[in-house]
C-alpha cells in the first residue's frame, strides 16, 4: 500500500491529513498500525500516569506517507500531540491540511460534547477542512448497539461520524477512505459553485 513512494504519479493528488484528539485517543496508534516500526514518531515518557497503561506521549508529531490506490491520492499524515503544553505544534502542523481525522475516546463522559469543544479549539487553525470524527475504545457489542447518525454538524461544518478501533489496519484504511471521500465531495461542491459563478457572469480576471 505504501510502496514506490519516491515517484509521484502524474495524475496523483497529494494531500495533507491531520490526525487530532485528546491524550491517549489513539493518534500515534494510527501511524503505528499503518507503518509499524517505520512509523516516524516523537513519543517521550509521560510525566504523569495516563489510562490504558500508556507511558509515553507525543511531544512534536507523528508522520507517515501512504498511497491510496483506489482514489489515486497520496496522503501525508501528521498526528498532533494531545497534551496542552505542545499546542504550539497544532498551528504549525495544521497549515494547508485538507482534512482532519478526529479520534475521540467514547468512554469519557459526554464524548459528543467533548468533540464539539475540541473542534472549537482546533478549527481556527484549519481552512474549511473536510473531516471524519471517529469514536474508539468501544467493545464490539457496544459498537453494534450504538446508533450514530452518519454526520455530525458543527456550525457550518458537516463531519462524517463513525466508530473505529485504530489498532486494526483495515479500520484505519476505512477511515482514510472516508476522509478522502469527504474531501472529494467538498472539492466537487466547490467546483460546482465556482462554475455557477462563471455561468452567472461573475467577473473573471482578464486572461493573459
Ligand atoms: N481498547 C482500545 N484501546 C485502544 C483503541 N485505540 C487505541 N487504543 C490504545 O490506546 C492507546 C493510545 O495511545 P496513543 O496512540 O499513543 O495515543 P495518542 O492519541 O497518540 O496520545 P498523545 O500522543 O499522548 O496525545 C494505546 O495504548 C492503544 O493501544 C481502541 O479502539 N480500543
Ligand atoms: Mg501520540
UniProtKB/TrEMBL annotation:
Pfam families given for it? ATP_bind_1
Per UniProt, the keywords (alphabetical) are: GTP-binding, Hydrolase, Nucleotide-binding
Q: Which InterPro entries match?
A: Gliding_Motility_GTPase (IPR052705), Gpn (IPR004130), P-loop_NTPase (IPR027417)
MF annotations from Gene Ontology: GTP binding; hydrolase activity
Coiled-coil region list: none
What domain of life? Bacteria
Family the UniProt entry places it in: Belongs to the GPN-loop GTPase family.
- Identification of the protein by name: GTP-binding protein
Amino acid at each position: 500500500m505504501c510502496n514506490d513512494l519516491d515517484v509521484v504519479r502524474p495524475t496523483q493528488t497529494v494531500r495533507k491529513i491531520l490526525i487530532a484528539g485528546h491524550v491517549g485517543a489513539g493518534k500515534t496508534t494510527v501511524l503505528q498500525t499503518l507503518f509499524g516500526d517505520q512509523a516516524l514518531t516523537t513519543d517521550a515518557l509521560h510525566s504523569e500516569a495516563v489510562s490504558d497503561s500508556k507511558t509515553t506521549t507525543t511531544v512534536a508529531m507523528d508522520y507517515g506517507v501512504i498511497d491510496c490506490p483506489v482514489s489515486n491520492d497520496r496522503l501525508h499524515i501528521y498526528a498532533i500531540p494531545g497534551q496542552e503544553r505542545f499546542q504550539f505544534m497544532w498551528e504549525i502542523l495544521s497549515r494547508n491540511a485538507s482534512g482532519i481525522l478526529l479520534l475521540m475516546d467514547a468512554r469519557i463522559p459526554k464524548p459528543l460534547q467533548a468533540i464539539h469543544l475540541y473542534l472549537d479549539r482546533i478549527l481556527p487553525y484549519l481552512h474549511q477542512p473536510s473531516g471524519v470524527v471517529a469514536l474508539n475504545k468501544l467493545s464490539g457489542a457496544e459498537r453494534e448497539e450504538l446508533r450514530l447518525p452518519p454526520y455530525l454538524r458543527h456550525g457550518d461544518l458537516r463531519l462524517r461520524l463513525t466508530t473505529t478501533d485504530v489498532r486494526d489496519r483495515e479500520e484505519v484504511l476505512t477511515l482514510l477512505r472516508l476522509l478522502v471521500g469527504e474531501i472529494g465531495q467538498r472539492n466537487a461542491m466547490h467546483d460546482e459553485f465556482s462554475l455557477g459563478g462563471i455561468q452567472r457572469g461573475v467577473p473573471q480576471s482578464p486572461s493573459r
